[in-house]
Task: structure prediction
Amino acid sequence: MIELEGVPELVDPVMIAAFEGWNDAGDAASSAVAHLDAVWKGEVFAALDAEDYYDFQVNRPTVWLDGGVRKITWPTTRLSVVRVGGDKPRDLVLVRGIEPSMRWRSFCNEILGFAHELGVEMVVVLGALLGDTPHTRPVPVSGVTSDPDLARTMDLEETRYEGPTGIVGILQEACTHAGVPAVSLWAAVPHYVSQPPNPKATLALLNRLEDLIDLRIPLGELAEDARAWQLGVDQLAAEDSEVAEYVQTLEEARDTADLPEASGEAIAREFERYLRRRDGGPGPGGQSTAGGHATEADGSYLRDTSSGRTRPPKPPRAEDPKDPKAEGPGEEPPDE
Result:
């Protein structure tokens, strides 16, 4: 039995989870949850027993000094709560850790036990995968679910992926079988620049999460970091003619796929996001989003206006890739 002493009653809680490893190309997903934890000062209330789920020869513990005293940090998964105020208060339960090495079913059951005790209304699992996408275009973010009703009401794709999966796909399916609404959001990271961090992909995930749960997220320096990241990759690509030519090929393929799929609905959605950030009103917790935060109008690298990965994306919706290298959301890609 899970007992949560000291955790206050939550308001319309949503659980947001991300795991380092196969599900996390460019550390985009884990960085998104870390950002939420930092901007809203999350308080850790639980950690799973590392002995139950991790192979310490794969994920080594670390030793560090605290005032001359040696301490050990064990690889694990931690849960924290953030209280989000403002006009539309909503609390978040953040789950951040490393993809477990073993006992995945028990791992998911333990996460679901916390979700049940806290009254979580929906679980959103973030992931990032490697894909054939140019770094110069908006990051494709796919939103998928195994629940046909949820797919219809939240304008998501019902997953059709078949193949190898990671903890993101396993947790989503565990939620579905337990009757807990669950969604996976997947960002596509350019495979030719996969080294972490990738603030552009992190930003795209947070923007999509905003739309999904109707919550304004303070972005801090993330938009500026995304701009600097893209400029840096531009410079590196310009120094290698073969890379520059390859990027141009990806750009042409992406633009050709996007053009006929552009829709008034997608454009209207982007304009609404722009107005939300431009109005300067206080975000959750009373934090203003004016001035310091870039908007969708500041550059294409700030928003994902399309979906899909290996087939022509639909701007307002997500696509299930069929490429085994870029395994589909909902059941995960190679970077799950």
User: Anything to note?
Assistant: The beta strands are 14-20, 43-47, 62-66, 69-73, 78-82, 92-98, 122-131, 141-145, 157-158, 182-190. The CA atoms of residues 69 and 288 lie 41 Å apart. The first strand starts at residue 14 and ends at 20. The radius of gyration is 19 Å.
